[in-house]
UniProtKB/TrEMBL annotation:
EC number: 2.3.2.27
Keywords: Metal-binding, Transferase, Ubl conjugation pathway, Zinc, Zinc-finger
InterPro entries registered for this protein in UniProt: B30.2/SPRY, B30.2/SPRY_sf, ConA-like_dom_sf, RNF123/RKP/RSPRY1, SPRY_dom, SPRY_RNF123, TPR_RNF123/RKP
SMART domains according to UniProt: SPRY
Transmembrane feature ranges: none
GO cellular component labels: cytoplasm
Catalyzed reactions per annotation: S-ubiquitinyl-[E2 ubiquitin-conjugating enzyme]-L-cysteine + [acceptor protein]-L-lysine = [E2 ubiquitin-conjugating enzyme]-L-cysteine + N(6)-ubiquitinyl-[acceptor protein]-L-lysine
Protein name: RING-type E3 ubiquitin transferase
Organism listed in the record: Apaloderma vittatum
GO BP terms: proteolysis involved in protein catabolic process
Domain B30.2/SPRY: 75-255
Pfam families given in the database record: SPRY, TPR_RNF123
Length: 1170
């Protein structure tokens, strides 16, 4: 408040007291005796006792301030203790990282000078304060689990990019990545650490020892007899490699784990303020606990959980006096975490739903009523920072109780509307990395996480094929194996139920943030969230090379699933109120969002190229189809030079506007980072295309009034710009005639859906593929264990030495499998569960519907961002490859129809002229090539409409020049494989004895030819007299090139092998050589396919091109088959016999059978025709 301690006069708040006539209706200021009793009960002495009534001073609101001053001054001898605490320590009392001179290498340091990220090979930094006597401790919060050395060093230690803390004399370090300790030399020590762990670093300069703790558990003494004496003082220090990050706690916040006896934090706690805050909090608890019964004239005990202020002036003024002293203290991070957060958590400890504890809402009301705004803001910011830090760095226990505890308090705080809106507007995405609240970290040490108790019995598949994949043949399961599997599955279900509790709380947080009914006091929460969410997406989309800015992909995965759950809750809630709207099962993003400028897609590529180019070339289509006029300023000619200049100016502007933080290289630059610091200032002027309607709502086509759009930044958008009003369609501005005039859902939910699709594209798919590695490890160890057990059974009894070694190996493999199977259970529940699979499947269907609706708009389809097609392809790939065998895609509802619709999209758009990006075109071609390798998806291609099938085959038969012909040829080969001469093999005969790297690769699938698509190809080649020669000439040209390149390369390889000096052929050259050979074989197979399906192209002399094509075919066949492959002791033979790694596929068989197939087919058909 502006004037503290001025009796009952408060400058900012006015309190109206009851008049005498009103006292019968409401509780007013009580009589003098009752007030005196009340104040003495509330403001007790330090020992909690009250003096006898005869000896205590009469209290009123006029002398309460004096009484409070005296109570708060009691037993406040902190000044002496503070002086004593400084003994044995040198440096500033506030301990931070020394970013001015105490560093080596490039390091990014947080605003508070406590968090650091390595930005060079092996950077080092120390603190500003050192110790020379006594016992000291500090904590390090591990944000990434990579290479770091944490410990102590002296001022004389000199580090460089190769040597850090622990690599020089008088420096000592613990490395949890390699599980070692370092002091010039290194030995094994401690346990491995993981992201989210806390390392405590202890030094005892009286005994000369250094020790470390991991998550509060001692790792034992690491070093003894460390150097001490005159001039020897030790600084906290760290060395860390590129991208690794930590946050230090020297004592500015309460240490997470209790202090060991005799040890002190490097930074003294604010003892005087702590004593004062705890006393004031005690008085606040008394106010809540004690009620005034005016009618009876006595004090009564009240139920604290249901306490409400109810406008009682006596209580209100008493609280005002308490907050007069408490408010400034609640701006300090140590007191917020140690006093306020502990008190609020204690309220929720009684159990029950968060709604059952309205006291927290009442306390937040009091804070906003009795504290200055800047005090409330700082207090709430520090409270959320403390909650997020506590949630992130809490150890995992079997019931996840700690995580649940902190999430419940976060929900309770966010349920308060005014607090929620302030935190959303200024803290959750600006200061905090609030996505951390939606992450459930995976335990690397399953023992400490309690998974052994939760899943006491482990199990893993043990029926494998030779390629290492789980056998699909149903074999009899032994009784013991069945019992183990069922016990393991029960343990997984127990784990799933506990994790679902945490996930449910995380979804509750998002439901609060997506609330659009809390319009009291300004904009609803949802619209604040939308703007912050869009900036979050921009940050992750526009800084792909800056790893410190990006949200870690493991966080993105969890955030995506929680956001989908919250979105579908509101979507279906709207459907219940508006029956005409679509349900979430029918959700899609309407095409007008991609071109009306209401949603910012930053610099993300559109299907048709750059947005500026599309606005110029398609402006007439926009006006005619969507009734939208682009603002003339948007249509200025933009050359590539202008584009570069704009980007440079935007970058320089952004850098000039960013807040300066410490860069440990002598300068000051902004440091985003995933610790607790502010994010970078964001600026992306060129493609900031959020727009607003300036005219009347769109009328039916006919008498057109064009809608003009102008650019708005994300921050400028209002609820009306998003939802629309008074005929303005908001985000749905510019609906094309192909789109039905039917409500979909609330416009704001469409933007959230669009953001979810973008999130999947940014990093979620990548992370889903990464976590499959744990399942692969289980398979490898299970195979190794099975192999070892077979060897034990075959081991002769007389060879005890071998038997003992095999038993040791068996034990190692079993222990590793026990660990991995429990960890896999966690990953399957959090990432690959059936519910998560259904989320990804729902996202796939959303993308398919969005692409289908966009496709109907004709030329405006070019405005769609490329990532919609990418997510459609990648999400299908994830469902097929990552979620099995735990969950099967075939069990999903509508699976067959979804496969067919995706097949139709791939078949139509791989050669769509509206799509200009080479990368996305290649991706579509590769996806179609993979699609035709598997029987199930190939059947889906055959079920698409006949017109689309014929169009696809016609595009595949287009001339190969000036397009990625290798993938096209691969698709045709897969359609033929299984029908050609000697072409029914899965793997080449000479490779059957070797193990493939990955048996799930498309190229290693069993042949599944499509006679239907072959028939379409034959009809097209027969009916179109121009298509056949152009197609075949291009195939023959490419074959001539590929085989010539192959011959040239094997000549070079042979020459290198014949030299007397030792030569190593470049592996890349071998790979290119093998690729050219494979291309030659596949091109020959396409020729065989053509000769078989439509022989008249070569043999019907009424066709003008037949003789020329036959002559060319004969020349190429003899050149590739007879001359170079069949001759005795030829060049081809010699290279094949070298058996070089990388040339395994190069052999006589594949090329000879392909040429033979062509020749036999020509002979047979010539005889028939003759």
């Amino acid at each position: 408040m502006t004037s503290r301690g001025a009796g009952t006069a408060f400058s900012r708040k006015n309190y109206r007291l009851s008049t005498e006539p009103e006292k019968s209706k409401v509780t007013g200021i009580v009589n003098s005796r009752l007030l005196n009793d009340y104040l003495h009960r509330v403001f007790t002495n330090a020992d909690g006792n009250q003096p006898a009534a005869a000896y205590r001073k009469h209290l009123t609101f006029q002398n309460l301030q004096e009484h409070l001053d005296r109570l708060l001054a009691e037993e406040n001898g902190s000044e002496d203790s503070r002086d004593q605490a400084a003994e044995g320590r040198l440096g500033p009392s506030t301990v931070v990282l020394d970013h001015t001179s105490g560093f080596e290498g490039l390091l990014l340091v947080d605003d508070d000078l406590l968090g650091v990220i390595g930005h060079s090979n092996f950077g080092s930094i120390r603190a500003t304060t050192c110790v020379y006597k006594g016992k000291w401790i500090y904590e390090v919060l591990i944000s990434s689990q990579g290479l770091m050395q944490i410990g102590w060093c002296t001022l004389n230690c000199r580090f460089n990019q190769e040597e850090g803390v622990g690599d020089t004399p008088d420096s000592y370090a613990y490395d949890g990545n390699r599980v070692r300790k370092w002091n010039v030399t290194t030995t094994n020590y401690g346990k491995s650490w993981a992201a989210g762990d806390i390392v405590s670093c202890l030094i005892d300069l009286d005994e000369g020892t250094i020790a470390f703790c991991l998550n509060g558990i001692s790792l034992g003494t690491a070093f003894d007899n460390i150097t001490r004496g005159a001039g020897m003082a030790y600084f906290p220090a760290i060395s860390l490699s590129f991208k690794e990050s930590v946050a230090f706690n020297f004592g500015s916040r309460p240490l997470r784990y209790p202090l060991l006896e005799g040890y002190r934090p490097l930074q003294d706690p604010p003892v005087a303020d702590l004593v004062k805050a705890r006393k004031l909090l005690g008085y606040l608890k008394n106010v809540i606990h004690i009620g005034i019964d005016v009618t009876e004239g006595k004090l009564v005990e009240k139920d604290t959980s249901m306490w409400q202020l109810q406008g009682e002036p006596t209580v209100l003024i008493t609280l005002a006096h308490i907050f007069n002293y408490l408010s400034p203290l609640m701006c300090k991070v140590y007191l917020v975490e140690d006093v306020l957060m502990t008190f609020l958590l204690s309220i929720l400890e009684r159990g029950g739903a968060v709604e059952a504890h309205p006291l927290i809402q009442q306390l937040l009301d009091l804070m906003w009523l009795l504290m200055e705004e800047y005090e409330v803001h700082e207090c709430l910011k520090q409270l959320l920072m403390s909650l997020l830090r506590a949630y992130r760095f809490s150890p995992i226990i079997p019931d996840l109780g700690l995580q649940i505890h902190y999430l419940r308090l976060t929900i309770a705080v966010l349920k308060h509307e005014k607090s929620r809106k302030y935190l959303l507007s200024n803290v959750l995405f600006d200061v905090l990395r609030s996505v951390v609240f939606f992450y459930i970290k995976s335990p690397l040490r399953v023992e400490e996480a309690g998974l052994q108790e939760l899943i006491p019995t482990t199990w893993w598949p043990n029926r494998f094929t030779k390629e290492g994949k789980e056998s699909k043949e149903v074999k009899e399961e032994s009784a013991e194996e069945r019992l183990r599997r069922r016990a393991y599955e029960r343990g997984c279900q127990r784990l799933k139920k506990r994790i679902e509790v945490v996930e449910g709380l995380q979804v509750q947080i998002l439901k609060l943030l997506l609330n659009n009914k809390d319009r009291g006091g300004g904009e609803a929460s949802r619209y604040i969230f939308l703007n912050k969410f869009r900036k979050f997406l921009q940050e992750n989309a526009s800084n792909r090379g800056n790893l410190t800015v990006l949200c870690p992909p493991e966080y993105m995965v969890c955030f995506l699933h929680r956001l989908i759950a919250a979105l579908r809750f509101f979507w279906d809630g709207h459907k219940a109120k508006t029956p005409d709207a679509l349900s979430s099962e029918e959700a899609y993003v309407p095409p007008q969002l991609f071109y009306n400028g209401k949603v910012d897609y930053f610099d993300l590529q559109r299907l048709g190229g750059l947005l500026s180019h599309l606005k110029k070339t398609l402006k007439d289509d926009l006006a005619a189809k969507a009734n939208v006029l682009i603002d003339p300023a948007e249509l200025q000619a933009v050359t590539m030079d202008d584009l570069d200049e704009d980007e440079e100016s935007a970058t320089s502007t952004a850098q000039s506007q960013r807040p300066s933080t410490a860069l440990a290289i002598g300068g000051a630059l902004a440091r985003p980072g995933w610790l607790s610091s502010p994010t970078l200032g964001r600026a992306n002027r060129f493609l900031s295309t959020a727009a607003v309607s300036l005219m009347n709502p769109r009328r039916p086509l006919g008498t057109l009034e064009k809608i003009k759009v102008r650019t708005l930044s994300v921050e400028q958008r209002t609820e009306e710009d998003i939802e629309g009003s008074h005929g303005n369609e908001g985000l749905l501005l510019g609906r094309p005639p192909e789109e039905l005039d039917q409500p979909i859902t609330e416009n704001s939910l469409l933007e959230v859906l669009d953001g979810i699709v973008m999130m999947y594209n940014l990093s979620v798919h990548q992370q889903l593929g990464k976590m499959v590695g744990v399942s692969d490890d289980v398979n490898e160890y299970a195979m190794a264990l099975k192999d070892t057990e077979e060897k034990i059974s075959r081991c002769p009894k007389r060879r005890r030495d071998i038997h003992e070694e095999l038993v040791k190996s068996q034990k190692v493999f079993s222990e590793k499998l026990n660990h991995l199977s429990r960890r896999l259970a966690w990953i399957n529940v959090t990432i690959y569960s059936k519910e998560k699979m259904q989320d990804i499947y729902w996202l796939l269907r959303v993308c398919i519907r969005t692409i289908e609706h966009g496709d109907r708009t004709g030329s405006l389809f070019a405005f769609m961002p490329e990532f919609y097609l990418s997510v459609a392809m990648n999400s299908y790939s994830a469902l097929k490859n990552y979620f099995s065998p735990v969950n099967s895609m075939e069990e999903l509802p509508g699976y067959e129809e979804t496969l067919m619709r995706l097949a139709a999209i791939l078949a139509k758009h791989f050669a769509d002229s509206r799509i200009v990006g080479t990368d996305i075109r290649d991706s579509l071609m590769q996806a179609l090539a993979s699609y035709v390798c598997y029987p199930h998806s190939l059947r889906a291609v055959e079920r698409i409409p006949e017109e689309q099938r014929i169009s696809m085959m016609k595009n595949l038969l287009a001339p190969y020049e000036q397009r990625p012909w290798a993938q096209t040829n691969w698709i045709l080969v897969r359609l033929w494989r299984g029908c050609g001469f000697g072409y029914r093999y899965t793997r080449l005969p000479h490779l059957l004895k070797t193990k493939p790297e990955d048996a799930s690769l498309p190229s290693l699938q069993k042949p599944c030819p499509s006679t239907l698509l072959q028939r379409h190809m034959a009809d097209l080649l027969r009916s179109d007299r121009d298509l056949a020669p152009s197609f075949l000439n291009s195939v023959l040209n490419q074959l001539n090139w590929a085989f010539s390149e192959f011959i040239g390369m094997i000549q070079e390889i042979q020459q290198a092998a014949e030299r007397l000096e030792r030569n190593f052929v470049d592996s890349r050259q071998l790979k290119v050589c093998a690729t050219c050979f494979d291309l030659s074989v596949s091109l020959l197979r396409v020729l065989e396919m053509t000769v078989t399906l439509a022989p008249e192209i070569f043999l019907d002399w009424t066709r003008p091109s037949s003789e020329l094509l036959l002559r060319r075919l004969a020349q190429v066949s003899s050149f590739s088959g007879v001359c170079y492959v069949t001759a005795e002791r030829n060049l081809f033979d010699r290279v094949v016999n070298l058996r070089l790694p990388g040339l395994e596929s190069v052999d006589h068989y594949p090329i000879l059978v392909a040429v033979t197939g062509i020749l036999v087919r020509l002979l047979v058909d010539t005889d028939v025709q003759g």
